[in-house]
């Protein structure tokens, strides 16, 4: 057995859902003894950045994930359309944008399989959608439609919309016409997500983009017992709506804090999106993109408005969870947090910058100085097709190769936590755990990517357990196997310090083995 950051011990004792003793002392206590038959035990994984409801919604639609050609995607959409003749909109995801050079997919390709009703597919980066012509028609998007502020519409040479749209404000032009998600349908998504997460060994997770009716669905799930893991909600606010959202968010936080114990739901965080993604050319950069020297990407907030919004929610003791990918967005976020720290009363704020992919050299030390947690997606820290085919041509190799400076940040004593960003990528921590340790997929051919940025397996595991617990203000009872902690743990079949071939044997929450069907 092993415990993140604490070394190896054999045997531990559980009483009333808590760990009461570890090591030899535990073996002396009376009670039932469970033999793990050589299993290796680690704390339950804690996912510090994920979108479980989006994953559940996506799982209902056509299954285009991991398909390797436009033809394969078309046949899956055709199959789904035929099997679901009464569905008025076909919405699904998430397709691999790197299979088409530049990532601009054409509406006409989808028209060949479905032309009578709208089709909307999300790309894996979740900053891009590909739609058919019916969707464009319903939304009234044509050659004369300007790009919305904070989004883009890909065009053909004649100026007509091609069928690929980038950033949520653009999706909204189309999706506002689709049937709205309901508490009932999102409740189903939550059940699906909880089962998937538990099977992957995740015992606490986050929902990092909460809009109505998602919080309401979580409240319903908590009341009915359908919420089987701990969940932390982060409400999304935008430059346009952050002021009017204050009352709604405070009301929901209050409702959630009053749910009967044991209450698995918390809602103390606000999500801010400051840019898009490098793969779609929408991450905000300090210097221009190479493939479009007129562009430095998308800066979603202006500086003053961002400072005002962060400051207002910080003053209400909400934790700030800021999506920033490009060095421009990260710089803007650091500057804004610096202002908030200077102006607002001091408190244990634990602000988070999530993704933190490309940090300007002069900004690296500021994470520690401003006591900001960098939440990384460990599965992204190797030279995958997205980094190689989509990102490198846009930003060049020097900037591409400076992504994910985990070692540098840890050496600067930065607090690092992990999250999956599911359904952007796999929710399974075991798919991701070894990637920042090797900077490649275990056992795969090819070179490690920037080997000097590797971290140890212990650091990787700690980022997905104890450090993520700290991010969620849960370090007193989560993320470690210590006396007094909640008995949330995962039994692996092998020791991950000896082999990459590790699978989950069982998952325990509050001392009870959770069976997933
Ligand atoms: Zn995300």
TrEMBL record:
InterPro entries in the record: Amidohydro_3 (IPR013108), Metal-dep_hydrolase_composite (IPR011059), Metal_Hydrolase (IPR032466), YtcJ-like (IPR033932)
Family annotation (Gene3D superfamilies): 3.10.310.70, Metal-dependent hydrolases, Urease, subunit C, domain 1
SUPFAM superfamilies: Composite domain of metallo-dependent hydrolases, Metallo-dependent hydrolases
Domain Amidohydrolase: 32-511
Molecular function per GO: hydrolase activity, acting on carbon-nitrogen (but not peptide) bonds
Pfam families assigned: Amidohydro_3 (PF07969)
Region (Disordered): 142-161
Protein name: Unannotated protein
């Amino acid at each position: 057995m092993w415990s993140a950051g604490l070394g190896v011990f054999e045997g531990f004792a559980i009483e009333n859902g808590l760990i009461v003793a570890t090591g030899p002392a535990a073996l002396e206590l009376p009670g039932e003894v469970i033999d793990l038959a050589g299993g290796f035990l680690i704390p339950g994984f804690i996912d510090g950045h994920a979108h479980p409801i989006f994953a559940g919604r996506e799982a209902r639609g056509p299954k285009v994930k991991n398909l390797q050609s436009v033809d394969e995607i078309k046949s899956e959409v055709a199959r789904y359309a035929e099997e679901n003749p009464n569905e008025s909109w076909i919405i699904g995801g998430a397709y691999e944008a790197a299979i088409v050079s530049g990532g601009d997919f054409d509406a006409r390709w989808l028209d060949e399989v479905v032309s009578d009703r709208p089709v909307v597919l999300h790309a894996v980066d979740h900053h891009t959608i590909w739609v058919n012509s019916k969707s464009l028609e319903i939304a009234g998007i044509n050659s004369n439609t300007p790009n919305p502020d904070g989004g883009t519409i890909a065009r053909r040479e004649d100026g007509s919309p091609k069928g690929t749209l980038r950033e949520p404000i653009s999706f909204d032009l189309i999706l506002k016409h689709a049937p709205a998600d309901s508490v009932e349908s999102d409740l189903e998504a939550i059940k699906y997500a909880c089962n998937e997460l538990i099977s992957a060994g995740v015992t606490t997770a986050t929902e990092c983009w909460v809009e109505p009716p998602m919080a309401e669905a979580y409240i319903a799930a908590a009341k009915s017992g359908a919420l089987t893991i701990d969940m932390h909600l982060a409400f999304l606010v935008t430059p346009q709506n952050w002021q009017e959202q204050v009352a709604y968010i405070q009301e929901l936080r209050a409702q959630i804090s009053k749910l009967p114990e044991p209450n698995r739901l918390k809602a103390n965080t606000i999500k801010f999106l400051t840019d898009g993604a490098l793969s779609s050319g929408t991450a905000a950069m300090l210097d221009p993109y190479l493939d479009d020297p007129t562009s430095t990407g998308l800066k979603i907030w202006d500086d003053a408005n961002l400072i005002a919004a962060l400051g207002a929610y910080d003053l209400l003791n909400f934790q700030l969870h800021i999506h920033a990918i490009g060095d421009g967005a990260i710089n803007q976020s650091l500057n804004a947090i610096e202002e908030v720290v200077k102006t607002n009363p001091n408190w244990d704020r634990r602000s988070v910058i999530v993704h933190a992919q490309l940090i300007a050299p002069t900004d690296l030390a500021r994470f520690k100085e401003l006591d900001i947690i960098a939440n990384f997606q460990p599965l992204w820290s190797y030279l995958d097709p997205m980094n190689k085919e989509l990102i490198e041509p846009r930003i060049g190799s020097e900037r591409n190769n400076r992504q994910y400076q985990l070692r540098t940040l840890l050496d600067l004593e930065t607090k690092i936590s992990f999250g999956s960003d599911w359904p952007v990528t796999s929710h399974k921590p075991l798919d991701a755990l070894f990637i920042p340790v090797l900077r490649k997929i275990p056992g795969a051919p090819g070179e490690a990517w920037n080997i000097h940025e590797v971290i140890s397996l212990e650091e990787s595991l700690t980022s997905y357990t104890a450090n993520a617990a700290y991010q969620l203000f849960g370090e007193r009872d989560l993320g470690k196997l210590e006396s007094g902690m909640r008995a949330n743990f995962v039994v692996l079949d092998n020791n991950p310090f000896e082999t990459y071939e590790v699978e989950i044997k069982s998952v325990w929450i509050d001392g009870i083995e959770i069976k997933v069907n």
